[in-house]
């Protein structure tokens, strides 16, 4: 046996449920894994250790691979070039000390016009988000982070719709 759990009805009659009894669970594929079986690779850019960790947990729990992280714009560009072309998407915080996320986005797109960058912003930064879209950002996520929205937007960008 090993895999499975016992389900007991009245009169102490127990039935062992195996994986076969939960086809819908078995069929659910992780969104972070490409059709060939390789995980999509993400570079996380944020000056907040908390947000980095939170994004990392959301992404890895869905099968994505976090290739690296950066805490400011300069580091983001450096890491992007270092890992290129093994980066499928960048999450880019807008507000960071040193070079901000909008400038880093612009430089990354200048280096790789096909870069997929999703901006991460606090509420009330609509002008910067708008500017980011003009500079080539593919989508945005608003903090505080909502797991469902984070995954939905990242998956949408990765799948190119
Ligand atoms: Mg920040």
* Broad shape: elongated
Distance between the termini: 44 Å
Which hetero ligands occur in this complex?
magnesium ion
Q: Strand share of the residues?
A: 15-25%
Query: Main beta sheet: strand number and arrangement?
Result: 5 strands, parallel
| Arithmetic mean pLDDT | 90
CATH superfamily: Response regulator
- Give the number of DSSP strands: 7
Helix content: 25-40%
Can you identify the CATH class?
Alpha Beta
Q: H/E series, N to C? A: EEHEHEHEHEHEH
Number of helices: 6
What does this structure look like?
The chain has 161 residues and is of the alpha/beta class. It has one domain: Response regulator (Rossmann fold). It has six helices and seven strands. The strands form two sheets. A five-stranded parallel sheet has the order 4-3-5-6-7, sandwiched between helices. Strands 1-2 form a two-stranded antiparallel ribbon. Strand 6, helix 5 and strand 7 form a beta-alpha-beta unit. The longest helix has 13 residues. The N and C termini lie far apart (44 Å). The protein binds magnesium ion (MG).
Please describe the topology of this protein.
Blueprint: E1 5-8, E2 14-17, H1 23-27, E3 41-45, H2 49-61, E4 65-70, H3 73-83, E5 89-93, H4 101-111, E6 117-121, H5 126-134, E7 139-142, H6 147-158
Parallel strand pairs: 3-4, 3-5, 5-6, 6-7
Antiparallel strand pairs: 1-2
The protein binds magnesium ion (MG).
Residues 46-48, 93, 95-96 line the site of magnesium ion.
């Amino acid at each position: 046996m090993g895999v499975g759990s016992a389900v007991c009805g009245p009169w102490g009659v127990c039935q062992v449920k195996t994986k076969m009894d939960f086809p819908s669970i078995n069929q659910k594929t992780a969104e972070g894994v490409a059709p060939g079986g390789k995980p999509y690779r993400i570079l996380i850019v944020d000056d907040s250790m908390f947000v980095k960790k939170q994004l990392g947990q959301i992404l890895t729990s869905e099968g994505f691979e976090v290739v690296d992280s950066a805490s400011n714009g300069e580091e983001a560009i450096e890491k992007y070039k270092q890992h290129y072309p093994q980066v499928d998407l960048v999450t880019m915080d807008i507000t960071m000390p040193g070079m901000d996320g909008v400038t880093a986005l612009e430089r990354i797109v200048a280096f790789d016009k096909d870069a997929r960058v999703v901006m991460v912003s606090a509420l009330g930064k609509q002008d910067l988000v708008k500017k980011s879209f003009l500079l080539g950002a593919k989508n945005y996520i608003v903090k505080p982070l909502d797991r469902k929205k984070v995954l939905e937007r990242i998956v949408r960008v990765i799948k190119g719709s």
